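Intended use. Records like the one below are meant for learning the mapping from a protein sequence to its folded structure. Do not use them to infer anything beyond what is encoded.
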Amino acid sequence: MLKKIAAVLLILALLCTGCASQTYKANVEKYDWFVDYLGLPEIWNNSITGKEVMVAVIDSGIDYNLLGEEFDSSRILAEFNAIDNSDDVIDDTYHGSAMVNLIGASGNNNLFGIAPDCKFVIIKALDSLGSTTSAILEKAIKFAVAFGVDVINLSIGGANENEGIIEAIQLAIDANIVVICSAGDYEREGAIFPAKLDNCLGVAAIDCTGKLYSKSNFGVGVDAYFPGVKIKTTRYDYAGDVIYTERSGSSVATAIASGMVALYIGAVERYTVDEVYSIFKKTNCENLKSILMENKL
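Structure written out for the chain above:
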């Protein structure tokens, strides 16, 4: 029997880290702190928006009501439920919907993602309890590879390593697909699986001062650090209305990293996974803007 992977949703309580909920004025719009931190307004104004880049979000599915009234559903190129092999990707936990927002919300309703013109492949791999199995996750990754995506976002992970998942991720790498994974929020040394793999980009969260998120894993297997503290997205309130909320953790940082990778891929003429990993492992967030500008087509 396949062991259950403790699929870490990483939806953690917000902490007082010194990053109060902030908004900034830029181009008339009000932006959250991470937008200015990453220099996104200038990047977007240079037509670097992730257009035509496909990001597979392997998570809990999607709820279109949480994406804003004006979200362009044509950006969703495919939907697949790896649990029951159907096209039912209803989001039971709303975690997957939040990751989609963070990667590519288009600014409607004052909700900003990183790559507002990227495309999505939505793959449901987490059940209503936020759990999955190695076989389901392997199937989900292989679906993304077969579809030909450019980036795979895995804002999930656990303690148990699995050869099938390792092989599926290697298939992605061989197909020149960038795989980005959450490092985990257990306040300990070492990233969780699969972020710990050498051929994945393991991401941890930082706050608006550049300080490591207090619950974040660190050290071996953590390759990059991205904003992931008090980041705005949406949820339902008790009355069933859509409201803004804030999320913190490495799952959030992973989605933001995936958006930044989508911007890079969309800005360059050609790339390899190794080149992307080299850039994102060796630079900090503040330098990515200049790198994107220098490499723009």
